[in-house]
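Could someone model iron/sulfur cluster with this protein?
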Amino acid sequence: MKQVVHAACPHDCPDACGVLITVEDGRATKIQGDPKHPVTRGFLCAKVAKYLDRVYSPDRVLYPMRRIAAKGIAATNAGEGARATQTWQRITWDEALDEITGRFQKISAEFGGEAILPYSYGGTLGALNGASMDRRFFRRLGASELDRTICSAAGEAGLLSVLGMKLGTEPEQFIHSRYIIAWASNIHGNNVHLWPFIAEARRNGAKLVVIDPYRTRTAACADWYLPINPGTDGALALAMMQVIIGENLHDADYVAKYTLGFDQLREKVKAYPPERVAKWTGISASDIRKLAREYATTRPSVIRLNYGVQRSEGGGMATRAIAMLPCVIGSWKDIGGGLQMSTSGAFQLNAAALKRPDLTPMGAENPRVVNMVELGKALNTLSDPPLKALLVYNSNPAAVCPNHNEVVRGLKRPDLFTVVHEQFFTDTTDYADIVLPATTFFEHKDLQTAYGHYYVQVSDQAIEPLGECRSNVELFRSLAGRMGFNDECFGESIDEMIDGALASNNPWLQGITRERLQREGQVRLNFSGQPGNRQDSLTGSQEFFLPFAQGNFRTPSGKAELYSEAMKAQGLDPVAEFTPPSESRHGADQATFPLELLARKADNFLNSTFSNLPSVQEMEDVDLLEMHSADARARGIVNGSTVRVYNHRGEIFLKARVDGAVQPGVVSTRLKWAKLSPGLRNINVLTSEKLSDLGNSATFYSVLVEVESAKSLP
Ligand SMILES: Nc1nc2c(c(=O)[nH]1)N[C@H]1C(S)=C(S)[C@@H](COP(=O)(O)OP(=O)(O)OC[C@H]3O[C@@H](n4cnc5c(=O)[nH]c(N)nc54)[C@H](O)[C@@H]3O)O[C@H]1N2
Ligand SMILES: Nc1nc2c(c(=O)[nH]1)N[C@H]1C(S)=C(S)[C@@H](COP(=O)(O)OP(=O)(O)OC[C@H]3O[C@@H](n4cnc5c(=O)[nH]c(N)nc54)[C@H](O)[C@@H]3O)O[C@H]1N2
Ligand code: SF4
Ligand SMILES: [Mo]
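Reply:
Sure, complex below.
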């Protein structure tokens, strides 16, 4: 029997694609993008187009496993057989659940629930398998709470400080833009479904400007590429506003009606003339002026701001400064104007129904919070209570966490009981006591929102779980049962959970039901009647959502806050300011190591996911250190040389590629599994646990290193 199932890609990606899976006699035989999805428009990214290789990979974890060897990397890339017999003993789910709950109960009795830490992030962004039954379980257990800041917390805090809500320009409006700035936005790599809209805008005469220290594919095909020194974007935005306000190019009417603190901003930006900012950014004063003038006068103009800016020590403040730009020029009024960093704030699912924070045991209302970026520090230094158990799901911290050597030192602790729920034997399972098999999105049902558009989807289950795989929801349901948690919510069915999540008072979810989602595949949030909505002038059929066309900011003042009391209360500049990151060429630590490192993502992997699949590996250039010819020459390095890249946190070995991707003073390499990298260590050996200025976020792009040529790869 052949059928086509509608699913939604749950990977941590703004596009949240609609997916069609063909199933024949219980086996998935084809995957394609849903042509009916207005943003997916029938195509998938290259990695998910190969998803059958992932689902049916011979390397999948299919059964619960118990460690029978010492913790550590047992085999780098060995086949299933060797690994299974030398490192793992297959056990039943009952045995696994007994062992886990037994250990959890013992640890709770001896040290308290806070000695147990959940560790999860973006494996799946499905509303259920991302954050529902797991949150209920850990609340009920009284475990430490995880502050999930590894990705976007700095940028979110910066954006919210100005707009009050994570809303932005919808992708469909980009075709109407005349001036598009891709700011720290690797569109071809990380957000490919925006590209066709930009391409159409350019056919209509739009100009594309890219601001990125790395010459991405998007930068290479831009009309104007501005390589910027890492971590200096805040200064650039302030200088642009110095020019715009100084030359009276701002929208005085919009500013007067809908913003707060313009006079303070006008004063503040006087300290950031283009000549001063040119020295930090590496962008000439004349180019800064030209950018500011073009941006303010070519209408509609839109900024696609992505998260690259905010993975920096001053990333929150930089995002805040950039978020002011569309408020100052009033581009929120235009179809195809404004800014998009994230659209996720529009999806106001019923979080209390999903996560049930009310399950907290008496006396444990405010559990200890552990920042996920500081996992190494937490495992090695926390006391009162120390961390004694870790349950990892939806994440691969031994690959993605900064200061990898410290993370591994912590994970190796013999007294730490680690459980990892996974689809593959990752870097993190190498330190697990128990590994549990997890389903892929083909094998479970979920509800899907997005952070790069405004469509909700139900992702249907296409095939039966492989082997003995269980979804995250089913794992935590099983654990709750075994712990004797008899709260009714642990028995809710998947459909009841989806219904509960959609049962929200938010007007944007009105009329969106599970039945309707299953019938229609994807449904746009219900923005009808929103002030500022406008008809599409080309087709006349679509009503666009312009969240801030008539103000409606969700800040305490209801205005776009160019001056923020909340910032002031945190001891920060209430307008905005720029301080160079301490780990940068202009920073306090610049004397330690001379080169700025971009520890970037791979275009064809998704963080560390996909980096173990041969058919995806073929598409990606790995284990390369990209550097400028001047920096290479000064160190006697040529294209293809083996190099040692090091700082005070550690060292890695790579092959040099001297290709013009980066400017002098900057080097770059990409994230992948550590155990598939030379010397069994990846880029996060070199990155820092230091937190950003706002949001306590990670600073993957504020890293100094030195490079020297080496004899051979380890
Ligand atoms: N193919 C692929 N797609 C992905 C991912 C992936 O790993 N691979 N990851 C997903 C995830 S988790 C996320 S959060 C999103 C993130 O997607 P993006 O926000 O696009 O994240 P990054 O790739 O970190 O950064 C974007 C760009 O910012 C640049 N950049 C670095 N530092 C600076 C700086 O100081 N200033 C400026 N102007 N630019 C800078 C980088 O070189 C990069 O090209 O993408 C998602 N999509
Ligand atoms: N150097 C450097 N480090 C980075 C970044 C960077 O740009 N540079 N990016 C950072 C960012 S933005 C992010 S968001 C983080 C991402 O950090 P993570 O969210 O840890 O990302 P992944 O490496 O994709 O690991 C997700 C894991 O979840 C598993 N998984 C997928 N679906 C499921 C499921 O349904 N159930 C269970 N139990 N497991 C599942 C996958 O197999 C995969 O191993 O990495 C951060 N680390
Ligand atoms: S990873 Fe992103 S682009 Fe690729 S299929 Fe999933 S949502 Fe679409
Ligand atoms: Mo992320």
